[in-house]
Inverse folding.
């Protein structure tokens, strides 16, 4: 297996994406997309020769190069890509999000080649990056997902927004799991394993697990319903009596059922017009309101098709408030 890579950055590296009011385009330019690398940024000298190994509970283990993957049918998928927030502060609300078009090969198509064992319940994904995070020696970055999820557009991606992946986005190959938080989309993908049990390692056992009851946790997989307001922008001065068209983006794993806005800190809510969801992309919502004296902020609340809504506070998908003034 080729090891032709070096660390461009060693250790944690992050770049905060555009603030919500700057997310004016349906497809976020790559330069404005979030970057979060727990263990470093790898630079690979020959991306086409990069190899991925597929092993575990399979009848025909194999290795494929990126060049081999590029000979397979290419698929492009537009999807929301959202950071789950810091695993060291998991309940802190975050609006670190973008909407991206990925290009690559369906993982489902690749797995058919290796004859998966029907008893394999989980897909492990292991990156080439290794090191320390949060004062813990993590070994290689490893995540997992239910095998049942693989058929829902999971990709082995080598392109982002029509261009070759950049190093900080996982060049030459990364996993992309539409509808799951970005932490599950492993960069510099080196190995796929099919297993009966969940993967070991701190990023699956110690971090990225939400407490749902005493002694009970849930993996941070599916993206919870969330929304951001693009207009009005924070600090905007609105003229009293003016009719303002507020708009923004909403998203959730499985799609958005509706969005409401409030201009009185949640005392009352007004339903928004919501465009028909398309695939895994975020959904635009719009709502007109008359700027009135005393109004100081606007907040939006998204509800998923499964019936879950954004909480007021205390979770990563808590409500996002935009302050403004009325003159």
């Amino acid at each position: 297996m080729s090891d032709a890579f070096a660390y461009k950055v060693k250790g944690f590296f992050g770049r905060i994406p555009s603030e919500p009011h700057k997310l004016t385009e349906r497809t976020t330019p790559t330069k404005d997309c979030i970057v979060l690398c727990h263990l470093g940024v790898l630079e690979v000298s020959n991306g086409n020769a990069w190899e991925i190994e597929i092993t575990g509970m399979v009848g025909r283990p194999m290795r494929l190069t990126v060049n081999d993957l590029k000979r397979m049918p290419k698929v492009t998928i537009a999807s929301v890509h959202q950071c789950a927030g810091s695993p060291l502060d998991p309940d802190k609300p975050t609006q670190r999000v973008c909407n991206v078009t990925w290009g690559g090969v369906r993982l489902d198509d690749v797995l058919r080649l290796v004859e998966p064992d029907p008893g394999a319940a989980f897909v492990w994904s292991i990156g080439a990056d290794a090191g320390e995070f949060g004062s813990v020696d993590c070994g290689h970055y490893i995540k997992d997902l239910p095998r049942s999820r693989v058929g829902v557009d999971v990709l082995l991606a080598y392109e982002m927004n029509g261009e070759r992946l950049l190093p900080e986005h996982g060049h030459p190959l990364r996993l992309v799991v539409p509808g799951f938080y970005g932490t599950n989309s492993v960069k510099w993908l080196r190995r796929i394993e099919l297993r009966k049990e969940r993967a070991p390692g701190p990023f699956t056992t110690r971090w990225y697990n939400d407490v749902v009851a005493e002694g009970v946790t849930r993996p941070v997989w599916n993206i919870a319903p969330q929304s951001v307001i693009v207009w009005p922008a924070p600090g905007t001065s609105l003229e009293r009596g003016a009719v303002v068209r507020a708009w923004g983006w909403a998203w959730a794993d499985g799609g958005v059922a509706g969005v409401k806005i409030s201009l009185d800190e949640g005392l009352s809510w007004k339903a928004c017009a919501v465009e028909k969801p398309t695939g895994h992309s975020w959904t635009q919502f719009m709502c007109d309101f008359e700027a009135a004296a005393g109004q100081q902020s606007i907040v939006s609340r998204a509800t998923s098709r499964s019936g879950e809504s954004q909480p007021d506070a205390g979770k990563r998908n808590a409500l996002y408030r935009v302050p403004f003034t009325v003159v």
Summary: The chain has two domains: 5-219, 226-326. The first helix runs from residue 66 to 70. The chain has three helices and 25 strands. Residues 165 and 171 are 5 Å apart (CA to CA).
